[in-house]
Amino acid sequence: DQQVKQNSPSLSVQEGRISILNCDYTNSMFDYFLWYKKYPAEGPTFLISISSIKDKNEDGRFTVFLNKSAKHLSLHIVPSQPGDSAVYFCAASGGGTSYGKLTFGQGTILTVHP
Amino acid sequence: ETGVTQTPRHLVMGMTNKKSLKCEQHLGHNAMYWYKQSAKKPLELMFVYNFKEQTENNSVPSRFSPECPNSSHLFLHLHTLQPEDSALYLCASSQVVASGGGEQFFGPGTRLTVL
Q1: Under an 8 A CB cutoff, do A93 and B101 touch?
Q2: Which of B4, B42, B45 sits opposite A105 (nearest CB)?
Q3: Which pLDDT value is given to residue A40?
Q4: Which of B40, B48, B103 sits opposite A49 (nearest CB)?
Q5: Beta strands in chain B (DSSP E)
């Protein structure tokens, strides 16, 4: 049973436009959410996170939105750049003594065209 | 060296071989993790170590044996693997957190192929 789902395997966007990556989760105990970016032949790199006490967190071109009632989060990238082309993973943690255990989605491949 | 390093980057082994994957973190963290990423699947947590103690074993077969001699080093000993164990094995580290929170820093991974 996959507790974190990214239902879009891929997304293609024009440079300068907005990229919106979506993630849904089923475990209501999750209280911290993260987005990671992964280039080929590299490990995932932390991008941005949000605690369940917030509904929005912004860092430069990246904004994460959390809708707890819908168990949904999204990552907005504005404006998108060709260097943003990568695989994006959402991850969630929480639920007591989880010691930072992360549950990952299956990833969305973002391609930003010049 | 900075961040999280993993060796080797690529490994091909037969089903009867014994090999080890090594991970080292230079971040002063006290939690370390092994993940497995198979094709078209999410990253799967395998093991968690906090202050050298194993706190999570995510129902991993005994042919995978982790070792954490100190907070900076983590090993994954492999023996009698199956072809379906072929995957990217990622190591990560973080500060220990009580629950939730805390970003993990990943190494580049070891691409394992079992023949």
Answers
A1: yes
A2: B42
A3: 86
A4: B103
A5: 4-7, 10-13, 18-25, 31-37, 44-50, 53-57, 64-70, 73-79, 87-94, 105-106, 110-114
pLDDT digits (tens, 9 = 90+) for B36-56: 999 878 899 999 898 888 888
pLDDT reported for residue B54: 85
For the segment A49-58, what is each residue's pLDDT rounded down to a tens digit?
999 999 999 9
User: B56 vs A101: CB contact, 8 Å cut-off?
Assistant: yes
Q: What is the pLDDT of residue B77?
A: 97
Q: Which of B4, B6, B35, B43 to mutate to test the interface with A (most CBs of A within 10 A)?
A: B43
A108 touches chain B (CB under 8 A): no
B99, A46: Cβ pair inside 8 Å?
no
- The answer to whether the beta carbons of residues B26 and B5 sit under 8 Å apart is yes
Question: Which residue from A minimizes the CA distance to B40?
Answer: A106
Supply A108's token pair.
Answer: 């969305």
DSSP A3: S
Residue B10 vs residues A35, A46, A90, B86: alpha-carbon distances, Å = 26, 23, 26, 11
HSE-CB at B57 with a 13 A cutoff on CA atoms is: 12
A76 to A23, A63, B23: CA distances (angstroms): 12, 5, 33
Distance between CA atoms of A59 and A37, rounded to whole angstroms?
15
Model confidence at A97: pLDDT above 60: no
Q: What is the pLDDT of residue B97?
A: 59
